[in-house]
Amino acid sequence: MLKALLFITLFFGSVMTEANNSSPELQSSEKFNWFNIQSECYIEQGRIAFCQACNPSFRPIFCRGRIEGRTYYGSWLNAHGAQWVQPGQCMTGQVYARNPIYDPLVHAYADINCRY
Known about the structure:
This protein is of the alpha+beta class. The chain has two helices and seven strands. It has helices spanning about 1-20, 25-30; strands spanning about 35, 40-45, 50-55, 60-70, 75-85, 90-95, 105-115. The strands form two sheets. Strands 1-7-4-5 form a four-stranded antiparallel beta sheet, with no helix packed on it. The radius of gyration is 24 Å and the shape is elongated.
């Protein structure tokens, strides 16, 4: 009985060790879980750019994203963020022009990646 118990312990211990050693494989497949969400950006009077991305699924998703805005004279403005988005809800982000009278925002883009 003791030999059988020892064998079972050693056998399951080796299986668990092999499972723990295979974690890089799980991590490599984990990065493919991220997917892009469509976002909409609009610029208000060259002062501020609002970008919004909504959760179209029936499950909460964790999203992280980057908003880029470009001004008339070529300056780039960046904003980063991450949050949980509930079903049917939206996440928003903004970038502000430093001097909207002389160098207004002319372009805004958001890249939002999410996962369940």
